Fold this protein.
Amino acid sequence: MSQQLLYRALVSAKWLSEAIKSQQAGLALRIVDASWYLPKMKRDPKREFEERHIPGAVFFDIDQCSDRTSPYDHMLPKASDFAEYVGKLGVGNDSHVVVYDGSDQGLFSAPRVWWMFRVFGHEAVSLLDGGLKNWQREGNALSSGKAQVAPCEFHASLDKSLVKTYEDVLDNLDSRRFQLVDARAAGRFRGVEPEPRDGIEPGHVPGSTSIPFTDFLTESGLEKTPEQIRALFQEKKVDLSKPVVATCGSGVTACHVVLGAYLCGKPDVAVYDGAWVEWQHLRQSLHALGEVGVRMRMEGREEMQGAVGLRCTWDIPPPAGTQAKWVRLNVGGTVFLTTRQTLCREQKSFLCRLCQGEELQSDRDETGAYLIDRDPTYFGPILNFLRHGKLVLDKDMAEEGILEEAEFYNIGPLIRIIKDRMEEKDYTVTQVPPKHVYRVLQCQEEELTQMVSTMSDGWRFEQLVNIGSSYNYGNEDQTEFLCVVSKELYNSPSGLSSEPSHKAKKELPWVILQVSPLFLPFVLHAGPQSTEEDLEEEEQEVEEEAEAEAEAEAEEKGAANP
C-alpha cells in the first residue's frame, strides 16, 4: 500500500491543525463531526457539538442522513439524499473531508461516515486519528456554537460492491463466498452479554469471526499500525487476499473492520448494513415458522443498498400475537417493523393500545401485520418520533399532513411540536411587510458629506437632486441639493404599524415627485424641509399614533363582540 493512500485514510491532529491555520491554496478542506452514541449512553451529540468542536467543523447526523423508511436505524440513504445532505454541509466533490467524533474510545462512529463517503464515490475522505479526544490531548483549539456554511453541489453514485444485504449473508451460509467479521464486543458475539437495544438477543451469524472494533485501537485511542492490524487479522484467521464483509450491531462499528483492512491495502471490504439487528429479527421469525428454507422477497428497491427500502412479504405467515417483541404494521400497503417498546412510548396513543391487545377492531393481513388504512408516507416521521423523540421531515412533506396523522394516532407530544412549528411559520408568513418612509433633506454642497455620513441608524441615502444655485451666500453662489433618504419601519402581526394614520395623512400632504427619468417615483413629504432631529421626532409621533389607532380599533371590536 502506498504512503499516499495511508495518509488519505488517516490524518494526525498536527496535520489538521496546520491545515486549518495555513488554509493551503487549492485545499477545499471540510471538517465533519460525526459523533453518534447508543441511546443507553444518554449523550446528546448535537448539543455536545454546539458546546465544543474543532474550528470550522460541521455536524453530521447519522440518524438524519439515512433511509428513514427502513424499520432499522440509520440505514444507508439513497445516493440523491446523501448528495443533498452533505451538500448542505458545504461539502463539494472537490472537498477533502476529514471526519472525527467525540467518543471516549478515540474513534467510534466516525468510520461509518468515512465509509459512507466512499460508498457514494468520494475518495478524498480521511479520519482524524484519535478523534476529538486526541485533538484536545495535544492542546489544540476548540470552537462552540452552530456551524454556518455555504451549501455546495455534490454528486453521489452508489458503489454496490461495498454493501451487502440480508440475502447475501443468508446465501453465504452455504456458498462461503466471503469471510464475515463481526465488530461487536466478544460477549455479545458469544451470547453471554446483553445487546444494547431492547428486544434484540445476543449471538452471531453462523460462521462469522469476532474482532471487536476496540482491537483496532491503541490504549490511547489512536489507530494501530498496519503491521499490528495485519497481525490481528492473521491471528483471527481472516485472509485479506480473499473477500471480506464486516458486520456489527447496526452497521456503525463494522466500519472499523473496513478501515483496518483499508490500512492494510485492502480497500474492497463491504458492510452488511442491516447487521445483527436485522439478521436476528428476521431469523427469529423464520425459526418461529419452522421452515428452514423459507426465503424473503425484497421488493421496491431501486438500488441494492443494505436494508434500504425494505419491504417484506412472506411465503408462510409468521405467528401473530401482541406479546411478541416485534410488531408488524401494514400502513396503506407498506409494512413497517418495530418493537412493542417503541410503540408504547406514548401510553395514550392508538399504537400503544393496539399492541397491548386492546380491542380496536384492527384486522390483520396474511403475514399477521395490523392493517391500518392511512398514508404510509406520513407514518415514517411518526415512527421515527417514537424511536428517537425528535421530528424529522423530508423537504416535500407538509406539516399539516404530519399533524393529521399525529392526531389520528393520538401522540400528544408530537401534536404540540407540530402546532408550535406551524404557529411560528404562520407568524412569519402573516407578518406585514415593512413600510418605507422617505424624507427630503436640503443642504449646501459643503454640508453634503457631513450630513450623509452622520445619518442616524436605520436611515439610508437614496438619491441626490441638484436644485441649482438659487441662493447666494456671501460673495459666492453655492449649489443647493435635495437629499432623499429612506427608512424601513417594521410592522408586527398585532396590527401596530409605522404607517402614518389617516389624520396624519390629511395634515401632511403627500405627492408623487418624479425626480429623474432614471429613478422610480418616490413618496416625498411636500412640507417644510426636515432636519435629522425632526425626522426622529416625526417617526416617533407616527408610531405613537399608529399604536393609539390600533388600540382604539381593538376596543371597537371588543364592544361589537361582547
Summary: The first helix runs from residue 3 to 9. The chain has 19 helices and 22 strands. The chain has a mean pLDDT of 77.
